[in-house]
Amino acid sequence: MLALAALLRFWALGRPGTLVFDELYYVRDAVTQLANGFPTSWPDDDPSMATPFTDDASFAVHPPLGKWIIALGLLVFGDGSWGWRAGVALTGVVTVGLTMLLGWRISRSTVVALLAGLFLAVDGVHVVLTRVGLLDGILAAFVVLGALFMWRDHERVVDRTRLTASGIAVQWSRPWLFAAAIAFGCAASVKWSGLYPLAAFLLLTAARDLLVRVVAAREAARTLGVTADLALHRHASTARALGRWTRQAFATGVIALPTAAAVYVASWAGWILTTGGWGRADGPWPSALWQYHVGMFEWHSTLSAPHPYQAHPLSWPLGLRPTAMYHEVLDGGLTATISPLPNILITWGGVAALILLTIWGFRALMRPRELVRRSPVLGAGAFAAAFVVTGYLSGWLPWVLTLSRSAVFQFYAVVLTPFSAVALALVIGVICRRRGGRDEVAGRRIAVGIFVAAAVIVSVLFFPVWSAMPVPEWFWRWHLWLPGWV
What we know:
By secondary structure, this protein is an all-alpha fold. The protein has helices at residues 2-10, 23-36, 65-77, 81-107, 110-121, 124-129, 136-160, 175-190, 195-222, 230-266, 269-272, 285-302, 344-364, 383-400, 417-433, 438-466, 473-478; strands at 326-329, 334-338, 471-472. Helix 1 (2-10) packs antiparallel against helix 4 and helix 2 packs across helix 3.
């Protein structure tokens, strides 16, 4: 799967040889950041970058880490379109590997892991956003890494939390939580929206810790063998569990939040250790950095410039308004296009899978012990369903609820694609593992095989319009299946 992911992301990566879409901002910031430690301005908007940059500080509206990764590609492969896209393409391949590992940790199924990797490897939105020098594909990599570490923390906590009174003490030793905080701190250092999944997974962790402790306390009271005073013992045990949970939630926050904040501040080292960056001379660096962030927040909160490819977040799950990033009419009736048109079998199938996981998660609320018990279907209990859905919603729901900014775009949804791929793989795993007659099981597996093959074929057919391959005009038009895809 990694070889396939690499092929789809690195093949003809230098095409086209000029900046496309928002590469105009991020690649130029990366070039100047590499040269100075902070972004400086360019005299014009020439996508060929033929005119040298100036020494005047530029007001960059996103944190530096994503642009350092773009700069790493430039450092290794030199100036040019291959160089400024290589770092992002590499993070795309890494994201596929992390998604496979997350799918395996959740399900302990090699088939599920391979399917999750395959679905992400050929997902049109993820392919395109890891073939251009934008920040969102990098953001997705750190979000998945943080989610993987959070899952490992869940496994460790559950392993140490046996349903006995001795297993519900406050746990301060949480190395995987610490690692997750570093990963999510890196995500926020690419784009501020990386804070959303950190907050969502911390809330989910707190909810899990509460349920685990309440269930553990009640089980401990029941094993005492008390009859007449059972209700009293349960009440007292539950009260103690709530007290421990409060202390555990505090400990979790103490471990995660300062760590993520420290990583975020460290990502600004180039700006901090130099004197020429935007606003750097406005007093000591902590106050200057704060004022810089006030300006960034004002810019983001008031951005409302109209754009032909604005897409309301409610349309993102179905990919109804993809962001066309490049289109050029060539000689001989040919065109070259870069547009993250979704593979609807994967995108829409992922949405259906997430709905099923949500239903399973709500059913689990009626059986709290399922949150800490292994399941023959999901492999790690119903908490797996809540975990995957939380990962997806953390990248989508905050944008749905954002009312102060209208200029939002479909390509932000690339952070949803790994969780959608895992969800689809888990549901297919359930379909394949359900019991039944030999003919019934064989029929389900044949249907799954046809679906997977069809998804791959669709991606093969769409790859030319994901990668600026010169194609006839009619071929490009044939791919415009929905009105919003124009």
